[in-house]
Amino acid sequence: MSTPVKNQKFNMLFNWFDQGGDGLLTHDDFQAMGELFADLDTSDDHANASAMRDAFEKWWQVLLAYGDTDGDGRITRPEFLTLMLANVTSPEHFGEAVLAIADALMRALDTNGDGVLSHDEYVRMYSELGVPPKHSRDAFRRLDRDGSGSISHEEFRTAITEFYLSEDMDAPGNWLIGPIKAGV
């Protein structure tokens, strides 16, 4: 059963993934998201970019396998919300479809190789992914749980996990792609 918090987050995610803006998710949308994320990797090592593309492809395949009941190659918003709760966030798919992107993204964005994301690295990443800096600056503050001035790999994974799995309205990870609002 969907909770209001998860429903709101997954609706935000649907809007973000709908790169074609047609109210449906398609393979093209997921390929575009994969490219958007892959383009964040500016290193000569293309493994992270490939890992992000592959993870978005895996995510798309899970959506098709479990939710494209009419075989038209498109996922509607209601189908997506149901699939996110029942399949994508299930333990057998969550690591391959979501955490794989987070791990590759962390490696790609840690441009100075210190194992953490600085404020500037974090805000740049989300700005390039279409999240307004005012949201990413606030998210950074919330996700830097130890107050070190940076986000560790573990803090980033925790935030991703909270965004997808937590029903707690106040979980810091809920701020990954913008604020959620109580009662919406």
Automatic annotation (TrEMBL):
<protein>
    <submittedName>
        <fullName>Calcium-binding protein</fullName>
    </submittedName>
</protein>
<dbReference type="InterPro" id="IPR002048">
    <property type="entry name" value="EF_hand_dom"/>
</dbReference>
<feature type="domain" description="EF-hand">
    <location>
        <begin position="131"/>
        <end position="166"/>
    </location>
</feature>
<keyword id="KW-0106">Calcium</keyword>
<dbReference type="Pfam" id="PF13499">
    <property type="entry name" value="EF-hand_7"/>
</dbReference>
<dbReference type="InterPro" id="IPR011992">
    <property type="entry name" value="EF-hand-dom_pair"/>
</dbReference>
<dbReference type="InterPro" id="IPR018247">
    <property type="entry name" value="EF_Hand_1_Ca_BS"/>
</dbReference>
<feature type="domain" description="EF-hand">
    <location>
        <begin position="55"/>
        <end position="90"/>
    </location>
</feature>
<keyword id="KW-0677">Repeat</keyword>
<dbReference type="GO" id="GO:0005509">
    <property type="term" value="F:calcium ion binding"/>
</dbReference>
<dbReference type="Pfam" id="PF13202">
    <property type="entry name" value="EF-hand_5"/>
</dbReference>
<dbReference type="InterPro" id="IPR050145">
    <property type="entry name" value="Centrin_CML-like"/>
</dbReference>
